[in-house]
Write a structure and sequence with these properties.
Two copies of one chain form a homodimer.
Chain A lengths: L2 H4 L5 H8 L7 E2 L11 H12 L12 H14 L5 H5 L2 E4 L2 H12 L5 E6 L4 H8 L3 E6 L1 E2 L5 E2 L2 H7 L4 E7 L11 H14 L2 E5 L29 E6 L12 E4 L2 H14 L5 H12 L5 H20 L4 E2 L8 E6 L5 H12 L1 E2 L1 E2 L10 E5 L5 H17 L2
Parallel strand pairs in A: 1-13, 3-4, 3-7, 7-8, 8-9
Antiparallel strand pairs in A: 2-10, 5-6, 9-10, 11-12, 12-15, 14-15
Helix pairs in contact in A: 2-13, 3-11, 4-11, 6-7, 6-10, 12-14
Enzyme class (chains A, B): transferase
InterPro entries (chains A, B): Aminotransferase_I/II_large, AspAT/PAT-like, NHTrfase_class1_PyrdxlP-BS, PyrdxlP-dep_Trfase, PyrdxlP-dep_Trfase_major, PyrdxlP-dep_Trfase_small
Family (chains A, B): Belongs to the class-I pyridoxal-phosphate-dependent aminotransferase family.
């Protein structure tokens, strides 16, 4: 076995989940998914496809119908370019994570330097490592109010002509950090000079609560990029359409990359199931019935949880502008993996340890607030408060 | 973009299919799939899962129920080891091709030497190339009767201590070549000495017509291997269960590799959809309702097509013992890609060019005989005969 594969970071979230195995009544906020089932009409589209027998191989890049739907969706959010422009820049992938892995396969030679802004979900660091890259992380820092912020100058200084690829995830999992349009423009301009590719994980684009953009979504690199920029944007059906378990996402690519990525899809998964793609097509066509309501609900979840957490002595957190996570520091609990394990066993509260997302986030905990019933969040906050008072 | 990705072989089968785009009435035998829809009861299991809302993330290595079903299936075919032995050696993957890619990711460093026996489906060569390996191919040769045969001594001589991985696909796509148990034992013994991993693509194991084995299946490396051998066997639900479009397969691994492969799954696709895994579980549980009838039917297909092809002047082929392909040489048609394009346009016959599978198969054509209606095969053979007489 390759040493790099052996040394890939174990999922610390999984480690906490294992600590809670067999325990009853645990309130689980550790994984990055809502507890809400995919809407009926999306599931029904998959069922209809199965009933008519769509059980055969499909094209590597995805069903044309789905790619057209994605093109329309992209145009609606980023109207600078026509719908038709997008079709040839879309590759449907077997999940957002699969799209990100394909991007690393397309760009990263063994020995290449890759820069990743952290904290970030572990996959962003692991994927270029699997391809043999030397990964350097550039950590966000914590402001006085507990918000994670980026030192733009430090980031730009760390990206040099030796940097093949820069990977960012904003709105960010776990911190809720978002990029401004100006920062995106500055990063892109810098990377044009250094010849560095930008891989932007924008799967939380729609889960944005700040109401300070024209489209309601978080700022996107697409809004400041030229069609031929060295930019790949990764998306997923998981978060905005409540479709985590379907394993479907897409990449937006410079046109010249679409065909090669199609070849990589052939050699990785060949294609996504047609019945899954039919469901996703309907999800986009009737997206107004899902995403706006979901965003409103997530905002209510955030606004339920964050004030309750802030009232707890020793908790430090800033209100996240996007995403679906409350990321907070617990005073005196620097070994957050141990804390998370104790919380699940002693308080019946399932959170993810910050150290899962980068060493700079040791002492932090991630709480996914995507919960159908916001009362579960209040109940969880009460468990945390009680545990801190009595057991910690 | 990486030069190796740019230079990955285009799918020549796709090129032929494109040549037939928009043409009516083409008899298509070019892809490696049956034209039969997945059986009702398998689709119904997926539908039931969707109806009860199984739309969430699942474990990296697959549902325990499915892994148990695979363990039982493996034990039935290879009874040397108990069912319980297998569970910890199983990783469920997003298709057989995905399993093979994960195996390359687990084993192959950039610069490593990988040996692939060809002709083979192009993915087996492309995957280690994507990981940066130096791939050497060891070609089968053609015997007097048109059968593709392996020179065992030549293969063993080509695998040295410098060889990290040996990849073989038998029963073979496209040639129908199979390995004998003695050959498998000799290869394994040799690879033990050189420290070389063996990656055996055995997805056609069940599609075997020779009736010369105890289990009715083709000889498998599992029957000659020790549990800790450096051996990975790749399987798929596609061929034996008529589930090509579902994208589900599995790997049988040395126990020490299962957990690391689970990490790789996290970073590639995270998991396969639960509803797909439910369907696969039922497919295995009620496999007797699918596979034996399918094998019998495929044998009838083979026995319909092969004699008809052999009657055609200029055609050379041996009867394949396994798989679902008739692979034949057409005298005087050395540019088989051009021939395949002409056949689709001029004769309405869709075949795959042999050169798609290795340069040594130039001048050959692959015919997938997995057809619900064997009369389509006879009709296709008649088109070939007519075209050769009048147009070629």
């Amino acid at each position: 076995m390759r040493p790099v594969v052996e040394s890939l970071e174990e999922s610390r979230i999984r480690e906490v989940a294992n600590a809670g195995m067999g325990l009853d009544g645990v309130l689980k906020f550790w994984f990055g998914e809502s507890d809400e089932v995919t809407p009926d009409f999306i599931r029904e589209a998959a069922i209809a496809s199965l009933n008519v027998g769509e059980t055969f191989y499909a094209r590597n890049l995805g069903l044309p119908e789905l790619r057209h739907a994605i093109a329309g969706y992209t145009h609606t959010l980023h109207p600078q370019l026509a719908t038709d422009h997008w079709f040839d820049r879309i590759a449907v992938t077997s999940g957002g994570v699969n799209g990100l892995m394909l991007a690393s396969q397309a760009l990263v030679e063994a020995g290449d330097e890759v820069v990743v802004v952290t904290p970030a979900w572990p996959n962003l660091v692991a994927q270029p490592q699997i391809m043999g890259a030397r990964v350097r992380t550039v950590p966000l820092t914590v402001a006085a109010d507990g918000a994670w912020v980026m030192d733009l100058d430090a980031l730009l200084a760390s990206v040099t002509p030796a940097t093949k690829l820069l990977i960012l995830n904003a709105p960010n999992n776990p911190t809720g950090w978002t990029l401004t349009r100006d920062e995106q423009a500055a990063i892109l301009a810098h990377c044009r000079r250094t010849g560095t590719w930008v891989l932007a994980d924008e799967v939380y684009e729609r889960l944005y609560f700040a109401s300070d953009t024209a489209n309601g979504a978080a700022p996107s690199f697409l809004d400041v990029a030229e069609p031929d920029d060295r930019l790949i944007v990764a998306h997923s059906f998981s978060k905005s359409f409540l479709m985590t378990g379907w394993r479907l996402g897409w990449l937006l690519l410079p046109k010249a990359l679409t065909h090669p990525v199609g070849k990589l899809i052939e050699f990785n998964t060949s294609c996504a199931p047609v019945f899954v793609q039919r469901a996703a097509t309907v999800a986009l066509q009737r997206g107004d019935e899902v995403t706006p309501g979901l965003v409103k609900h997530l905002q209510r979840c955030r606004d339920t949880l964050v004030p309750l957490l802030r009232e707890i002595p020793g908790v430090q957190l800033a209100e996240p502008k996007g995403g679906m996570y409350a990321f907070f520091r617990l005073e005196g609990q620097d070994d957050c993996l141990a804390t998370a394990k104790r919380l699940v066993r002693e308080a019946g509260l399932g959170l993810a340890p910050g150290s899962a997302f980068g060493p700079e986030a040791a002492g932090w905990l991630r709480w996914c607030f995507a919960s159908r019933d916001p009362q579960r969040l209040a109940q969880g906050a009460e468990r945390l408060r009680h545990w801190l008072r009595t057991a910690a």
